[in-house]
Amino acid sequence: MTLARIVPAKSLAEIAASQIRDAILSGAFRMGENISEDRLVERLGVSRTPVRDAMALLAREGLVVVRPKRGTFVFETSPEDIKAICDYREILETQGVRVALRCARNAYLSELQDVISAMTTALKADDADAYGRLDTQFHGAAFSHCGNSYLRDANSLVAGRIAALRANITAPYAERRAESMAEHVAMMDLLSEGDLDAFDAALKVHIRRTEEVYSRALAEGHLGGSPTEAPK
């Protein structure tokens, strides 16, 4: 008798969480937006229980905040939070890349090359959503190939929030995507050449420039909260 491995079916809460997560990461739900439970029940065609369970899952990921008697909101950010996230990214990604190169250099670089090709296509098509998702894949590839669950878990603490932030600033600043594309190509070339010191420097510039754009988007009201005068 041959026994086949049983693959557990996803619960309604997991399915609902997946759809809501995608809406947050794509920017369909904006930062700080109140996500109506009634609207989700109607749109998803499920009862309130799986919707509430889904929100609990997303709250643990840091993507939503449940406020008693007020509702559930997409997370908001601040310049201080953005700086902390960028510091965390810089520290974690430089090490994740090194481990990925040691463990699975060819597979890692091959995926990056495929992502670069797809990013070029998305840029030419002015597809901000596709470009943002590929940007996330580029920076997450190191953790997919590092062979270290602790590094992957550490990255997952902020990966969703970074993707949501990226989606919220991509649309208003098309010129940044072209600049970003050039930076990704340069980083890919440095990794292929094995020049990790130069890669670290390029990654730092890339992340810090992103921090500036996040701050600009926050000031102009793209990241939730009240817009203020944009920096010159």
General description of the model:
By secondary structure, the protein is mainly α. The chain folds into 2 domains: 12-74, Arc Repressor Mutant, subunit A; 79-219, Up-down Bundle (Four Helix Bundle (Hemerythrin (Met), subunit A)). It is 71% helix and 4% strand. It is built from 8 helices and 3 strands, in the order αβααββααααα. It has helices at residues 12-25, 37-44, 48-60, 79-124, 128-145, 149-170, 174-193, 196-219, and strands at 34-35, 64-67, 71-74. The longest helix has 46 residues, at 79-124. Residues 225-232 have low confidence and may be disordered.
- Just name the CATH architecture of the largest domain: Up-down Bundle
Give the N-to-C terminal Cα separation.
72 Å
- Total DSSP E strands: 3
Contiguous low-pLDDT stretches (5 residues minimum) are: 225-232
- Provide a count of the helices: 8
Strand pairing plus helix content: what structural class?
mainly alpha
The tally of structural domains comes to 2
CATH fold type of the largest domain: Four Helix Bundle (Hemerythrin (Met), subunit A)
Secondary-structure element pattern, one letter each: HEHHEEHHHHH
* Helix content percent band: over 70%
